[in-house]
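During the second year of the project, the team shifted from modelling isolated chains to modelling whole assemblies. The rationale, set out in the original proposal, was that interfaces cannot be judged from single-chain predictions alone. As a representative example for this report, we include one of the complexes processed in the last quarter. Its constituent sequences, exactly as entered into the pipeline, are reproduced here:
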Amino acid sequence: MDEPRQPATINDSAPVIEPGYTFASVTDKISSIVLTRPTSNGWFLGFGIAFLLTMMMLYAIGYLFVRGVGIWGITIPIGWGFAIVNFVWWIGIGHAGTLISAILLLLRQSWRNSINRFAEAMTLFAVACAGTFPLIHMGRPWLAYWMFPYPNSMNYWPQFRSPLVWDVFAVSTYATISFLFWFIGLIPDFATLRDRASNRWAQMIYGMLAMGWRGSARHWHRYETAYLLLAGLATPLVLSVHTVVSFDFAIAIVPGWHTTIFPPYFVAGAIYSGFAMVLMLAIPIRKFYGLEDFITERHLQNSAKVMLATGLIVAYGYVIEAFMGWYSGNRYDTFTLWNRLHGPYAPCYYALLACNIFIPQLLWIRKLRTSPLALFLLSGVILTGMWLERFIIVVVSLHRDFLTSSWGMYYPTRWDWMTFIGTIGLFLAAMFLFVRILPMISIFEMRTLLPEAEVKE
Amino acid sequence: MEEEKNKRAHEDVCPGKKHKLDLKTARAQVAETNGPEYWRSLEELAGSSEFQEMMHREFPKGASEWLDAVSRRGFLKLMGASLALAGMTACTKQPLEPIVPYVRQPEEVIPGRPMFYATAFTLSGYASPILVESHLYRPTKIEGNEQHPASLGGTDVFAQASILGMYDPDRSQTIAYLGDVRTWGNFLEAIRGPLSAQKAVQGAGIRILTRTVSSPALADQLRSVLKLYPQAKWHVYEPVNRDNVLEGARMAFGQPVETQYRLENADVIVSLDADFLYAGFPGSTRYIRDFAKRRNPEAEIAHQYHDEFRPESAMSRLYVVESTPSSTGAKADHRLPLRASEIDGFAGELLLALAATSNSLKTNKGTEFLQAVAANLTRKRGSSVIIPGDHQPPAVHALAHEINQTLGNVGKTVFYTDPVDANPVNQTESIKDLVADMRAGKVDMLFILGGNPAYDAPTDLGFDDALKNTKIPMRVHLGLYQDETAELCQWHVNEAHYLESWGDTRAYDGTVSIVQPLIAPLYGGKSVYELTALLAGQAEATGHEVVQGYWRKQHPGADFDTFWRKSLHDGWVDGTTFPPKQFATKVASYLPSVNIPPNAVEINFRRDPSIYDGQFSNNGWLQELPKPMSKMTWDNPVLIGPAMAARMGLKTEDLVTIELNGKKVTAPIWIQAGHPDNSVTVFLGYGRRRAGRAGTGTGFDVYPLRYSATPWFTTGVNITKAGGTYKLASTQGYQTMDTPEGARPQVRSASLEEYRKEPDFAKEEEPPAELTLYKPYPYEKEPYVWGMAIDLNACVGCNNCIVACQSENNIAVVGKEQVVIGRHMHWLRVDAYYQGDRDNPKAYFQPVPCMQCENAPCEVVCPVGATVHSTEGLNDMVYNRCVGTRYCSNNCPYKVRRFNFLLFQDWETPQYKMMRNPDVTVRSRGVMEKCTYCVQRITQHRIDSERENRKIQDGELQTACQQSCPADAIIFGNINDPNSHVSKLKAIARNYSLLADLNTRPRTTYLAEIRNPNPELET
Amino acid sequence: MKRTPIYGMMAEFDSPTTLVEAAHRAHHAGYLKIDAYSPFPVEGLAEAVGFHKNGVPLVVLIGGLLGGLSAYALQYWISAISYPINVGGKPYHSWPAFIVVTFEMTILFGGIFAVFGMLALNGLPMPYHPVFNVPRFAFATKDRFFLIVFSTDPKYSPTETRRFLESLEPRSIAEVPS
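Output from the structure prediction step:
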């Protein structure tokens, strides 16, 4: 599989791993974060805050279950509000992880080895956050299981023509596959930790997780085949998931939803926001855990380039949407366009254009591409922009549809905000735990990046 | 806002604070005395009614309820629970007579099969004849009496909603003395003494205040009371009275006269500020039917081809001159907004114009309009009609009579009869006298039989003050609620609702209906008949005895029982319809009234389209019923014209202060397109202080501005911006079909001419049926496929269908806060649109139920198949399958789906449990719901027809909205049967489906609106 | 003294290159039952220890087909046979709408089969294994590379094999007790 064409030669400047490392030093550096390094106060502080936010989310959801979805700002005609906006946003963020671990693997982009592990973790947690929303946004969440085809006394089944059922299958598949991918990636590293761990409990636990992995040549061979096939499966999957999510809108007849452009530009947008999130996590992590040697300028640069590319695709999507709105001559589509530009939510639309199209063009500047701070801020801007995009699509399309008599307005309540911010807390809390108890960089794949990993004839 | 409300409430529950005996003075009095006296005086003190009244004011019963700040919903729950504890759990009580032992099931009662009883609902003396659906002796739904000439099956919103009024848990439930529970027996002995004392002075101290009485039996009773006590007086007052009509008749004929119109004979109708197509105008239900009948352009077109002798249109033409936009104005072919004070001018001009040759008119606002009207009227002598509005001054009525006479309409389109009002006095004068007597201390016993004068009497009389501060020893209030008036009377007798008591009443044409109870009084209330009987000295007479006794007198003879049974069964008493009479007009010389300066601002007082004069303010259905023109709920903003608002720099929801003769009211405004300039309209009935959980504190009380001299409109009002805004709950924020990207053809309309030229103008290019990849569902094989046609030409926006639907389908009331967010639950809504010049726009109504699309977008997206298609083409909603994703609503282009965002249904209050339609599921939280074409009725009829082994006949099956529609605008039936009424309508050229280009293939289609404008006025 | 049965003989190397080379030579020397352990996948090592048939792809193929077919069958049965009902005028068998779930299920089953198939074929989980008895084997997951000749090999003999392994110049040699 992916052999490192000696790092230095790969197109530009920075290597994927700074020189001077050996198998041993790589192993120790990464595993020590988990095994030996004392937990810093910073970690406790950060985790504490994230945990409190998670508790806030649970409170908001608890109240939601007691009173009903009426505590949110949703109404007729805006039947979907923050819940679906957040769902789409989180799912999108998840995509970068799978993209890095699967697609870049197939494309033999060996630089992905140092970021794929926590990118995958990010995927899992993002999907977990996303998964919350379709569940709690139901009027009767305790009946959510009716979405699955199971034999029942009512002798009745899900309605497979509904994009929501597709969602259920797509998202649950996505979650499962992402987890498996992440998990088998971890097995060899569990083995490493098992053998490094000094504390009995750690040995036991990591040992069980490693399932007796001993790095036999035969095992490695099957392992790699499985890994590669899994990547092959995950690649169409990741593309399909956001396509299916976009079907939730594209299948409907609401002006502003009923568009064929949605699948491609949803996927592009997903990767766009995903990489933004990867950077927002990678930059502080490499700083605090001194991993600049493993997560190098090169990774930042490449991520920035991916964002630039996908961002342009998204921009193209907007342009086509607007053009079609005007060109179709359909009175409802033309109005939807007008309403975005001049309606009550116009400021959101302009903010969206700024965040997603104009400001990110700064990435053309090399100096910014290589400055962690700038990238961090830009990523924040892009994440905001992508959230706004989903807000525009969901709310602004719904609030003024066909009959002028039933137009309405949507105002989020504090419960909407608490739930949204709460999921960010959940996501961060999970990330904090992850970096603390699992190797956040794939050790065995890092080893393959070292020059001496090559078999010389 | 909130604390201000509380403050008001507080002042009102402790009115005694400032004056009269309070605790401190009481203590002082006690202190003065010493020794043994002390005790005696304390007893005295405690015994004195004055002391008790003071205690009542210091610690009023239920004060806490009115003071606490819990939301109306929360409070509702509390009350419900407490009532449940009180053991009020829905045990149905049968009316006392005839008693049916339930151990053996009476043969006419089949559980699950409703029975219908004829009775009548009375509003301001005018009866709406109705049939009441009763499930095991529980009245659940009100429908029109098809046999009765005043209904023909239609109802009005107030009658429809009165069922909720009966089950209202806030109704007064006991007899009370100073707020303490008492028994009927207590009351009897309490008044025995005073009454006998009055005998001596021939009842000089007795005053009886009733609302408008049209009941022959009651009138007879009261007269006998007056015989018993010759010096006693019977006063009549209600805020929405017809003084002007009567005075106008007196001017014209020298005596009170009832005027009826035959709109089916009218080619030209001129309304002088008369909203005769909306509930509250006597006979409106019938008038709507007749009006709609003559607005049928197909008949008109038929005439074009078959009848050379009728060159003129068979479709009538309506001119409306009005001072505030109304649904009648919306249906007008030509509408002229005028300030109310300018209308008698217009009427005078019109009279002159008709008399003189129409060119010698002195120029005046609306001249061109007026000339056209005059010309049109002269062409239609004998087949035209002038209808003056109740709130127009007597002069206008007199003029209207004269114009109708000169046009020779009398006997053709206009008929005169004796007044329906049994005691046609000038009510304003009547209550003036009463207050005068009260202040003069001439009143010893005051019986207020119904009504709420303390709240709605003319402000300058200060009735409440008189009631509070004149020492009338015995003040008795009979009423459905312990309201503002009850609070100021020592004795309150809880009144029995008309659905709980016997009685009789007259329709607008004089026909008497016997009011029969559907259920024994829930709270053992007494009817006005029973209380009056008490005064007449027949203490224990039941309402049944009184009413039957009276009619036995009227109809002596052996066949009385059959007569009685028949009258009860039919819902009216034969031979009681007033015969038309001829009256000689004494030619009222028309003197042009003082010309109001054009920029003098005028204020109009109108009965509220939803809660009338305030008597329905605790009726949730009516409170949440969108008013026809503004779609406003729960409030009564000040209507103001666009021009005036622009001048004053006001926006909708801005607060203004209205000052009139020193009295001030602060209320928000609503910019109402088509409202005349320099004029505002306020609606009565809001700002109640003791109405109940729904009515208390909603809206703004404008009675303080209503003077006895100017009950309906006056100039000299001073309106200033108060600063601040107030949230208003309109169910339709956007009331035009125009968008920045072009108009949307939601309501299609054309003039008669255009319709003749291009009959299928309304048909948008609907995609052809074969234009699909899929094989269409084989509906043609089904015996029934249901469909609906709504004739926009007939619809007058009277809102009946909305209330009928709410009643039939157990639709929840959500409260103002939720309506503001946009979560009202009406399955059927009536959209109102304005087009053109905002100062005088064209207005359209469009009832929108579920379209029951064949290609329903909602069904495809439901993940659990909770909404699917039935073989009969219904878009079924399976409540207990719904998980509440709301996707269906998002994907419904008509937005007719409603969602239970919270627990909107009241599951606790036992009264509501009794009220609900047992055939319809009561939806819970988190479930989507919508119009089902009244599937429960369909099923009922299918079962019946199958048992009788036949097909459902066309017309036997009616949806609730169709049944209640006075205009026959909604037609429902089997579209597989080409001969069904609905199929015929759908075959008409102007039939179109809403948003046809989406290819949803709606089963509900619309007949485009056709106007019949006067070519001379075309611009 | 009783001697414990021997599982094999293990040699430790410190670079992938030497390990691969050693494996080749062992193979040529006629040792058939050998295996190699490395802290990361080393190219050509499997071939060197004579491993050729890899069952994983077939397992994944079966899984994918199973998932896809059963998913479509389920949808068809539900919508057209078990509970046929008119939904928005669409045919009972709306195949375009069924594609998505079919696809997702193909992926899901393929993935699950890939992972668990791989583990099963590798005989994992296996908490105990003789090689763990060699203390230095802990470095097999860090930076050391091991070659083992199993005692089941016909050519295996404690002395011969040790001599042969020594000829490969390993860092150390250990006998693996079972």
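Helices of chain C lie at 16-28, 45-48, 56-82, 95-121, 158-166. Chain C has a mean pLDDT of 85.
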